[in-house]
Model the fold of this input.
Amino acid sequence: MFDWILAIWLVWSLFGFIWTPYDPSAQDFLGDRFALPSLRHWLGVDGLGRDMFSRIWRGSSWTVLMGGVAAGGMLIGAGFLLVLERWAPQVVGRMIRAMVSAGLAMPVMLFGFVLLVFLPPSPWSLVLACAVGAVPFGFRQLRIIWVEQATAVHVQASRALGAGWWHQTWFSIWPNVRSQVLALARLLFAVGVLKLSGLAFLWLVGDPDFPELGTIMRQNQTQLFANPMLVVWPALFLSGLLLVVHASNLRTGVARSVKR
Done:
């Protein structure tokens, strides 16, 4: 059930790029500033006269898109390092493991600060910072999954029968790790969303008016006492997305345990 909820949530979020009830950036309702939720404005109006529901919808679109791109970058980077660590000379493997250990000790946000010294602040600079900064975490998790299956009895039997590494990878290992890799991808997506929104909340996105959930929370922080819900709504949408991803992964882990 949670897989379907997550899929619907993601599709709904991305649809915000195509259509929202009102223009998320237009200050069309200055006369209704700080208005409470109503039939016309489901989540009220912010301090600049913008429809809050439209703005959060567009913010969810950017959060999901950027988080998905960051997660894809993490998984590709982790997979590339795993291939090198597995099939390159041992000295290269030891070097990669040492670099990953050092990278795990470096918070993603700190890596983002360092990277943004050399890159202009922008949404895609944050995506790059989160993707590269979380590669060590993704590599460690992917390596655990792969090593667990590579040393399984059925893989050893396949190897003993003379199967090459290509046959072992695609017919003995991959079918058994596919669900775990998908669960890892969802986990990396949640990590990317959380880190990106945190960096955007610090206004490292470049444009302080950029419609992303973390930026929307920061924009309305100064209006917390005028209308606290302007901060609560984007926080609830962000927390709800992360909760659904976590519940989907939890269900996958339970199903795998039952199957075993």
Summary: Residues 67-259 form a domain with the MetI-like fold fold (CATH 1.10.3720.10). Residues 13 and 61 are 5 Å apart (CA to CA). Confidence is low (pLDDT under 50) at residues 254-260. The chain has one domain: 67-259.
